[in-house]
Amino acid sequence: MFIRAYLRASTKEQDATRARADLQRFVDERGLRIAASYVENESGASLQRPELFRLLSDCQPGDVLLVEQVDRLSRLNAADWEKLKAEIAAKRGRVVALDLPTSHQLIQQGGDEFSARMLDAINGMMLDMLAAIARKDYEDRRRRQAQGIEKAKTAGAYKGRPEDAGRNAALMDLLRKGQTWASIVAATGVSTSTLARLAKRLKDEAA
């Protein structure tokens, strides 16, 4: 059994490794160790998470997928959550979350088959419940954010996200020098939509 720690934050501005010490303390208290850590800054509401699927690719039967909270693993809608669960089940992995006490026993080896099956069933039910709560929290926050933006627009106070002028100037300079979009994305992590907007700005300036 290998313990594979998964650490996620939603944006590049957030520290995805924040929970590393808590995960390490959890395994230390049980005389175990983390075999590998997988860290990424991606939305939990999307299945487009390369590090999570690299973890699953590395996973062997009986390995543990260790997370701080269930919402680090999933803020997925019901259909995508079922897909992710199927991927984990196909690898015969076991999800252990610090905020899900029923899962903690899964990190210990041993026990009879009946107890193991009962524990798996209880843990699966609790995982589903916490994943549903995480998704509702995500949708509630998105709805409140949209309502706040709409209210600000109505009042004429919404300005949108402030532009990173320094970054955009550097990106536009790269575009002027003929750098390909692919090379800029690979080097900076900027989105193609941002590059498209800046390329249009360059075109308008040249017109």
Walk me through the structure:
- By secondary structure, the chain is an alpha/beta fold.
- The model has no long low-confidence stretch (mean pLDDT 89).
- The protein is built from eight helices and four strands, in the order E-H-E-H-E-H-H-E-H-H-H-H.
- Helices cover 54% and strands 10% of the residues.
- Helix 1 links the parallel strand 1 and strand 2.
- It has a four-stranded parallel β-sheet.
- The protein has two domains: 135 residues, Rossmann fold, CATH 3.40.50; 42 residues.
Estimate what percentage of residues fall within beta strands: 5-15%
Question: How many individual helices?
Answer: 8
Shape: elongated
CATH architecture of the largest domain: 3-Layer(aba) Sandwich
> How many strands appear in the DSSP assignment?
4
What is the straight-line distance between the termini? 63 Å
From the alpha carbons, calculate the radius of gyration and give it in angstroms.
Answer: 22 Å
Structural class label: alpha/beta
Provide the residue-averaged pLDDT: 89
Tell me the count of domains.
Answer: 2
What brief labels describe this structure?
elongated, 207 residues, Rossmann fold, 4 strands, 2 domains, four-stranded parallel β-sheet
Helices and strands in order, then pairings?
Blueprint: E1 3-9, H1 20-28, E2 36-41, H2 50-58, E3 64-67, H3 70-73, H4 78-90, E4 94-97, H5 113-154, H6 165-176, H7 181-188, H8 192-206
Parallel strand pairs: 1-2, 1-3, 3-4
Helix pairs in contact: 6-8
